[in-house]
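Intended use. Records like the one below are meant for learning the mapping from a protein sequence to its folded structure. Do not use them to infer anything beyond what is encoded.
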Amino acid sequence: MQQDLTQGSISKQLIGMAAFIGLGLLFQTLYFLIDLYFVGSIGADALAGVGLAGVFFFLAMAAAQLVSVGALSLIARAIGARDVGQIDGVYRQSLLLSGGLFVLTLALGYGLGGAAIDALAADPATAAKGKAYLDGFLPALALMFPTGAMAAALRAAGVVRPTMLVQTGTVLLNAVLAPILIAGWGSGFPLGVFGAGLASSVAAMVGFLGSVWLFGRVQTLIVDPLRLDRPSPVILARIVGIGLPSAVEFLLMFVTMGVVYSVIRNYGSEAQAGFGVGSRVMQAIFLPAMAISFAVAPVAGQNFGAGLPDRVRRTVRDAALMSSALMACLTVLCLWEARLLVAPFAPDPAVAKAAATYLGIVSLNFVATGLIFTASGTFQALGDTRPALVGGLLRLIVFSAAAFWISAQPWARLEHLWWASAASALLHAVVALLFLRDQLKWKLAGLVPRPAAA
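Structure written out for the chain above:
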């Protein structure tokens, strides 16, 4: 059920929420890892194609931030201030915005996605596999928006366990459907990589319906989760104003992925497949720090809305310490044996070597990445996500310039690109922490507890 995060132990609240958020993120990531696992038996070009189509996952995630970040920030602060009307109004507008993005994703994906894959693929075989997977996977991407709007409202209210349970069921369904549709088990009609994407879409639809069914049963602040209100320009502007910088920040990640695929295409499909596997495994490794940062936003947001500056500061401090400790342990794991982590998804030795090399080098920036996530969650809670965008933009500029320069050198190897990526992440962390210090000083100055509304 919904929680009052303005009282009680902050550490327990962060750990309790992060545990369920982390499980939910893990199951969300498993969608793609399950596809990689079953597609790996088809060949390196199929792996590369699925990894290439997975870039569009970042694009959809960027658009999803436009809704979820803005809605979560406003709803969490409204809960802290006990403003029930604001809670409902923000949710309705976020749902309306999600519907528009749902339609836009399908239109652009089916209209322009194939041409984008052709431009990035190392060879025609990889491009064909990538387009086939994307055709099946696009409905799953589109469903991220309405499902994400409901999840953001629940997370703002401190409700995370039901979402995790729904995601668990959808991942299990995807794991069952993927081999059936890919290899044609039982049906006799193998669909290949298209079947992998279709399995994820069917599971995502079941997850959406499950979220609708649970929504009114786990919280009492919002009723009738699919009812739409008339557009409110004022509320929509507030949601977009907070969510847009985070959306652009995720879009920069999409652009960075495009830069990497463009630079390494001359190294062959094994290099692209290795990067695709390594980056997906890295995303799974990031889940503990991401879970903590996702917990920071509602905890700090409710306390900020309630006018409790000391609890906001303690939330940031505890989250930074937790994420740093976790990411340091994961760094040691990757440095010890990265090949073990990528082996289940890369049966080809050349692909496995490329993936392990990538993961071993970029693991050196894991602690810095954990701090970036914590800062980002705090910016969301405070209602100003522009600092996160500035750090992400600077990182993209530095990495892109270094990557294109390195790729033009006769001595260039893939490892040099990964070292450039690690260095740019460290720069990003420094910028984020400087902005975080200033934001806390400015936003919390003069903040006083607000009386509860009737």
